[in-house]
UniProtKB/TrEMBL annotation:
Pfam families: DUF1805 (PF08827). It comes from Ureibacillus thermophilus. The lineage of its organism: Bacteria, Bacillati, Bacillota, Bacilli, Bacillales. It comes from the Bacteria. InterPro entries: DUF1805, YunC_sf. This is DUF1805 domain-containing protein.
Length: 100
C-alpha cells in the first residue's frame, strides 16, 4: 500500500510518501527542491553515478514513521544538499526547511 499526505512546516508544504513493502516501509518527504528519506536511500550512488543530476537529498536511518523522519538526525547527505547548508546530524525537519 502507498500513502501520500501533505506536511506543513513553518507555512511551507511538503509531500510525505509512505510505501509499505514486505518486512519494510519506505519513507520520504519532498518538495520541488529535494527530499529526505529513510535508510533505503543510497547517498553514495547519488553523489557518484548520478552526480550530473545534482540531487538534493538526505538520509536518516532507523526511522519507522514520518514523524521519526522529521525528528531524526540525518546520517548522510548529498554533495548538492551540502551546498544548501544541509549537513549530517541536522534533523530531517531542519534539512527540509533549508530546501525552501
Amino acid at each position: 500500500m502507498v500513502s501520500i499526505e501533505p506536511i506543513e512546516l513553518e507555512g511551507h508544504m511538503f509531500t510525505a510518501v509512505i510505501v509499505h513493502l514486505p518486512k519494510t516501509t519506505l519513507l520520504t518527504i519532498s518538495n520541488e527542491i529535494g527530499y529526505i528519506m529513510c535508510g533505503a536511500l543510497d547517498v553514495q550512488l547519488l553523489n557518484t553515478r548520478l552526480a550530473d543530476r545534482k540531487i538534493i537529498a538526505g538520509r536518516a536511518v532507523g526511522v519507522k514513521t514520518i514523524e521519526d523522519l522529521l525528528k531524526a538526525p540525518l546520517e548522510s547527505v548529498t554533495t548538492e544538499a551540502e551546498k544548501l547548508g544541509i549537513v549530517k546530524g541536522m534533523t530531517g525537519e531542519e534539512a527540509l526547511l533549508k530546501m525552501i
